[in-house]
Amino acid sequence: MEIVELDAAGVEQHADELAQLLLDAHESNMALGMAAPLTRDIAADAWRQLSGVLLAAIDGGVVVGAVNLAPATTPNGRHRAEVQKLAVRLDRRGGGIGAALLDAVAARAREQGLRLLWLTTHADTRSDGFYVARGWTRMGVMPEYSVAPDGRYATNAFFYLQLPGTTAV
């Protein structure tokens, strides 16, 4: 497996595989910012519309995971970025792909001179525990933050990670 940055042409080349990541997330009741019902076309378009840096885990020429790094655009927030849509194909979960993508996105953020990363996920889920285990700080929860694919309101947990060698502002 290798982790590569996908440009617009790479997103098009792997659009179906990227879409499957979001469809798999919905099957696990994780929205990743997408409302139900989710179609393959809508899921593929979601990846096309992202800004920032899209990293993909590719194994045997196939995308098996992806994550997006979206730097803040406000003048006083250019030191931080949001980690978005960390997703691993359903049949490949638990094999370290998510951890490798999370490490890769943090390394890319450091290369860009960023000091702080943040993200949100559904609270009290496997992904919530995953970020804690990876050293991210859970700073709190917000009830009814999003709607899960099953239609219920989801409480979301918010996390941050100060990148090594940086200090709080």
Strands, count: 7
In DSSP terms (H or I, runs of 4 or more residues), the helix count works out at 5
Mean pLDDT: 95
* Percentage of β-strand residues: 25-35%
- Strand adjacency order, main sheet: 1-2-3-4-5-7-6
Write down the oligomeric state.
single chain
Order of helices and strands: EHHHEEEHEHEE
Query: Could you estimate the helical fraction of the residues in percent?
Result: 25-40%
Please give the alpha-carbon distance between the first and last residues.
Answer: 37 Å
- Shape type: globular
Structural class: alpha+beta
Low-confidence stretches: none
Radius of gyration equals 15 Å
Reported for the largest beta sheet, the result is:
7 strands, mixed
What secondary-structure arrangement, pairings included, does this model have?
Layout (H helix, E strand, L loop, with lengths): L1 E4 L2 H6 L1 H13 L12 H9 L4 E7 L2 E10 L8 E9 L8 H15 L4 E7 L3 H8 L3 E11 L5 E10 L7
Parallel strand pairs: 4-5
Antiparallel strand pairs: 1-2, 2-3, 3-4, 5-7, 6-7
Helix pairs in contact: 2-3
Structural features, described:
The protein has helices spanning 8-13, 15-27, 40-48, 97-111, 126-133; strands at residues 2-5, 53-59, 62-71, 80-88, 116-122, 137-147, 153-162. It is of the alpha+beta class. A 7-stranded mixed β-sheet has the order 1-2-3-4-5-7-6. Helix 2 (15-27) packs across helix 3. The longest helix is centred in the middle third of the chain and has 15 residues, at 97-111.
